[in-house]
Specification:
24% of the residues lie in helices and 24% in strands. By secondary structure, the chain is an alpha/beta fold. It has a single domain, classed as NagB/RpiA/CoA transferase-like (Rossmann fold, 3-Layer(aba) Sandwich). The strands form 4 sheets. Strands 4-3-2-7-10-12-13 form a 7-stranded mixed β-sheet, sandwiched between helices. A two-stranded parallel sheet has the order 1-11. A two-stranded antiparallel ribbon has the order 5-6. Strand 3 and strand 4 form a beta hairpin. It is globular, with a radius of gyration of 16 Å. The two termini are 19 Å apart. It is an enzyme of class 6 (ligase). It catalyses: (6S)-5-formyl-5,6,7,8-tetrahydrofolate + ATP = (6R)-5,10-methenyltetrahydrofolate + ADP + phosphate.
Length: 190
């Protein structure tokens, strides 16, 4: 069985994403959004969505925002503090002003704050993940910290253009696993 470290996977998947055309990214993001409709999450009310860093060719979550809006869900987005490595969560409303930070992450300027424990479903950005539900992000630990503040029953859904790796070898005890990962072709359940 091939064993892989987070560092190797970060590099591999950043490269793979760079190779995607804008058209491929859009089509795959649409396929992911459609697959989400099959998940048993739609009776929940509070959904946290990341806004994609287009420069990093992340999954485009705009379609997910439309789904949530169409289903009348409360949509929550975050702002990251790079000094404390903490995220503050805000309700996304028609009045929310979004601005990119120095890392090209679109963030709300301010708004109605929502505590982590209210959030019931989190769509998690990632670079890679394995068949046990462990994920590799950019390595800053924002999501690990945020997910640890959520209730244990909060549903954590990774979004990826790519299929799962066999096993990430250097996971930590306090790494929080995903419940699902959704790709254009498949829904992994952990």
């Amino acid at each position: 069985m091939k064993q892989t470290t987070k560092k190797e996977l970060r590099s591999k998947y950043k490269d793979l994403r760079k190779q995607l055309s804008e058209k491929e990214r859009e089509e795959m993001s649409l396929a992911i959004a459609n697959k989400l409709l099959d998940l048993p999450i739609w009776e929940k009310s509070y959904f946290h969505v990341f806004l994609p860093i287009t420069e990093q060719k992340e999954v485009d979550t705009e379609l997910i925002l439309h789904l949530l809006s169409g289903k009348d869900k409360e949509t929550i987005i975050s702002k990251a503090d790079f000094e404390t490595r903490k995220m503050t969560h805000f309700l996304l409303t028609d009045n929310t002003k979004i601005k990119k930070n120095e890392y090209h992450i679109p963030e709300p300027i301010d708004g109605i704050e929502v505590p982590s424990h209210k959030i019931e479903v989190v769509f998690v950005p990632l670079l890679a993940y394995d068949k046990t539900g462990h994920r590799v992000g950019y390595g800053k630990g924002f999501y690990d910290k945020f997910l640890s503040e959520c209730k244990p029953e909060t549903i954590k859904i990774g979004l990826s253009f790519f299929e799962a790796e066999e096993l990430i070898t250097d996971v930590f005890e306090d790494d929080i696993k995903l419940d699902y990962c959704v790709t254009p072709n498949e829904v992994y359940s952990f």
